[in-house]
Task: structure prediction
Amino acid sequence: MNEFQLWRISNIQTDTNRDSDGRLQVDSDGTIRWADAGAEKLFGYGVLKMQGLALEGLLASREENPLMPPLIDQLTRGGSCRLTFRHHKGYFFTALTRCPSPSDEPDTPQAYILSRGDMPLDGRVLRAAEGSAGLGIWELDALENRMFWSDGLFRLMELEPDQQIEPKHALFFFQEHQQQVNDALRQCRDQGTSFSMEVPVLTARQNRRWMRLVGHCLKDQDRVHAVTGTLVDITDLREQQQQASRWQHFTEGLLAASDDLMLILDTELKVVALNRAYREQFHRAFQVMPEVGNHLPSLLAQHPHERRLYQRLWERAMERDSFCVEMPLAHQDDQLPLYEIHFQRIFSPDGELLGAAHVGRTMASRGVVGNNQHHMNTHDPMTGLLNRRELLERLRRAITVNQSAGTPQALAYLDLDHFAVLNEQAGPSACDRYLRELGGLLQSRLRQRDAVARVAGDKFALVLDNCGPERARNVCDNIREAVKEFVFEWHGEIIRTTVSVGLVPLCTDPGQEAAACLALAADLCQSAKTAGPDRLHVHRDHDTARAETEARELLAQLEYAIRHDAIELQFQTIRPITSPTWGEHIEVLTRLSLPGKTPDDERVLWAPGDFLPIAERFDLACELDRRIIRKTLNWLKDQPQLEPRLKLISFNLSLASMEDSGFVPALAEMIGDTAFAPRCFCFEIRETDAVRYPESVERCCELLHQIGCRVALDNAGSSGQSYHLIARMPVDFIKFDRRLMQHLTSDPVQQVMVDALHRVAVVSGIETIAPFIESDAILRAVRQIGVHFGQGYWLASPQSLEQLGRQALQRQRP
Result:
């Protein structure tokens, strides 16, 4: 940031005249970031109208730009220069310009604080204090029986300051409290007793206000010679107190009217409020009667298990917006009722956490009967579904029925897709409520004879009774559709996801065990989740199993290539085809070199079409991108001969890298370690990714531009939104789709599409690249259209990256 001080030449000798001087602060881009009032007047602009203007617009010519050498050098060394500027009205004027120095700043006296002591108080200060504090000052001369009022007190009484009033008349303002006020004044005068009281006052305009009257005596040689004090308007405070009192009564009435267990604790787990129902049930459970102000953990000191449980629950309540559990107040007594307990955080209007509320409702209204302890042992406390232990017991019974009577049974394992992401976005409280509602949805889609359980955080299991493989598959498909269509809204957050399912039809094998069946269903569910969200995998589905086995083999090979850096780098030249351009323009191509099946076999090369689908499916594409870029940049560090010749080096970028917030900062650090300018590096994004994820792609393009890199839109023309993307997306190149190039010479429609895309790009300031030029006819066609660059086997075949370095060395030789 540069700061300049300017004086108009005509007034430079008049040091006391500050109307014709001013200061500007200008950033490195030449934009004015700040101008003082003098500068605004000097240039004829209104208040804050100069911020954001370009400094060049205020100069008579570019040669007089103070940011350009040699002027900036002269100014930073303390010198000055005369420059001609343009006034807002259009005329020119000359101003002496220099950079201000610290000596230009006026000397500021040292600040300090002193006690006023007996120094006389300025009347204006007194009036300002009375007005802001809503008070008035009075004084009673005990010897002359005269009373003095300040202007503030006259304002409180709604009287004119010069209005005459006798002391006895002043008591009339206090209406029914006249005698009380008069007695307090007399006692203070005669006995020296100070007083303070809150009384209603009826002003001269018949307005009722509440005031705090305070009085003290002033003594001289043990003799009271004056009584003085203040009268403060406390009407607003009184109304706030009354409002708080009313709300307290409302709350107490609400607590008393409900049979639900209601309790409010502050952040230190102290009781703020509770109702009779909670007090009685707590006393029944723990033989202790809780009261307001009690510390809940201290009340449970004789019950360490419950004390730890309640501490965890309330700590969780202070961290989450809300959640729900099902439990009795105490676990040691089987006869205690079971409650559905809701916890809710409480905040002040300023967002300060005040505490949390607890409302417990007996589950008898939900038809829960029988032994409550048994229910706790067999059900999940959050969703009310069966727990894992009870599910295994039901599964054992199903296996027994299947083996003994031949009744078909099936086990399904459900795992919600991307639920961890939803948990981070919407918060644990919303997701807990979603799981609870989802449990009710699953129950509604099953028969009463079927069993549904929550076996882990976001995982469920079903035991389908008298259900063959085909019918079980239909049930699972219906559940997948129901979960997909289930939309849950909680405090403005929308939660919606899909579910992957593993289905195991139970067989009559005598050795079949419940735990093994559940593990098999979980493995099938995991394979469905890996193959893609919202999938169903069924045991003994050989086609699916074979595809999954093949995918896992390919994944193992890809992980091997990444782990052992088995990446071979190649390049293909991108040539200018309409006008000559100096320097090298290349695209980096990647092959993965994998060992053969036996040590004697030759190594196998994987093209991107072979490994990219696996990399993207198993979320390895971002790591692969980073390794390719890092390996290329490390190679460039050893090729200084390429630094002046390399004008463009292009990389393909995956969607995972564009959505990774840490990718661009890591890229900037890698590029910064090389001698090559960031502008040399270009990153190609696929049009299909830009169509499906426009916000992520656009944000990545902007970040790449911020670090100086360029961006190309690959496969342009592959969708119906190409023209919109070219006009809106911040890219520097577009590369046409392969299908447009294949039939360019024989299909007039393709020619029109390429020509139209090229024209839109040119108007948008974007250069075009025609890939897959594989014949002279295609080259002539794109050249006739005016495409800027071409790429393909007809122009240059892919070569090893080392060959590029050798070619550069050969060109340097004489």
